[in-house]
Amino acid sequence: MIGTDVVYRNENFLQVIKSYYQLTKPRIIPLLLITTAASMWIASNGEVNSFKLFITLLGGTFAAASAQVMNCIYDRDIDYEMLRTRTRPIPSGRVRSRHALIFAFILGFLSFSLFVAYINLLSGLLAMSGIVFYMLVYTHFLKRNSSQNIVIGGAAGSIPPLVGWAAVTGDLSWAPWILFTIIFLWTPPHFWALALMLKDDYAQVDVPMMPVVEGEESTVHQIWLYTLLVIPCTFLLIYSTETLGFLYGMSALILGVMFAQKTWLLKQNPLDKSLARSLFKFSILYLMLLCAAMVVDSLPITHKVITILGNNLNIFANYIWP
């Protein structure tokens, strides 16, 4: 843990607000909210209630922020050792651990209260389960003890679609679990690409990320395998549950081909950090565009347009080949 050499500094009010904001790792949260929103749009057949959407995303933001603040508290020792993370609020002495813990509990309480008061109990319990799984299973048991940490721990980041679906329907069918699986399988290629870039940092603090323990070639091989798993899984929303249709299917196909190409290039050059960076950035874009395709495909107007186009194509085909 952090030694006594950390001097806690007084700051003005705006600097304090900024420090607590940084504790939540705000760059991570939007991607979680995008998957939540996509799930809500699908569950509501493209006609999501705006108030319910707002409260669910707000509650999800508080839950994710709570988990990230707790992660900052737990990892303050390794954050202090790495130059890249030493300037974070806790290791730099801008926020005390006990104050951060109070902040995390307040965020968690606000999240659960919003879900229970305005949405339903199931969505609130799912949001809290994400915090517990992220902290207990990933951060405490796996992160510093297993090279498979991000594989199993990825389940925490896969919970938001379950929350979104439960917020709309009050239950969980097959479709949200397919969304859960898509994100679960997407997480290793996404995070291991980042780990390839930060291999030396993880090795410095003895965190057994895959590139540190198994090496770059083995890691890239695993990235390739998970990519080959996640791409066909995206089509289950069409062929298994018939939740989505043609527009989403074409988007998933195009994005899947691009994802596979990026991964294949890295597989041919596992030591190239620029390719790892490119894959990491594209993996974010991939999930965002995939979720956007889910939303657009779920809209009633999309169904009408595709139906009209389909009818016109049939008329044209019958005219050409009577």
UniProtKB/TrEMBL annotation:
PROSITE patterns: UBIA. Pathway: Porphyrin-containing compound metabolism; heme O biosynthesis; heme O from protoheme: step 1/1. It is found in: Cell inner membrane; Cell membrane. It is a multi-pass membrane protein. Coiled coil: none annotated. Its EC number is 2.5.1.141. GO terms for biological process: heme O biosynthetic process. Keywords: Cell inner membrane, Cell membrane, Heme biosynthesis, Membrane, Transferase, Transmembrane, Transmembrane helix. GO terms for cellular component: plasma membrane. The chain crosses the membrane at residues 28-44, 50-74, 100-119, 125-142, 149-168, 174-198, 219-239, 245-266, 278-296. The keyword Acetylation does not apply. Gene3D superfamilies: UbiA prenyltransferase. It comes from the Bacteria. It catalyses: heme b + (2E,6E)-farnesyl diphosphate + H2O = Fe(II)-heme o + diphosphate. GO terms for molecular function: protoheme IX farnesyltransferase activity. InterPro entries: Protohaem_IX_farnesylTrfase, UbiA_prenyltransferase, UbiA_prenylTrfase_CS, UbiA_sf. It is an enzyme of class 2 (transferase). Belongs to the UbiA prenyltransferase family. Protoheme IX farnesyltransferase subfamily. Converts heme B (protoheme IX) to heme O by substitution of the vinyl group on carbon 2 of heme B porphyrin ring with a hydroxyethyl farnesyl side group. Carbon 2 of the heme B porphyrin ring is defined according to the Fischer nomenclature. PANTHER family: 4-HYDROXYBENZOATE SOLANESYLTRANSFERASE (PTHR43448:SF7), PROTOHEME IX FARNESYLTRANSFERASE, MITOCHONDRIAL (PTHR43448). NCBIfam families: cyoE_ctaB, PRK04375.1-2. This is Protoheme IX farnesyltransferase. It comes from Atelocyanobacterium thalassa (isolate ALOHA). The gene is ctaB.
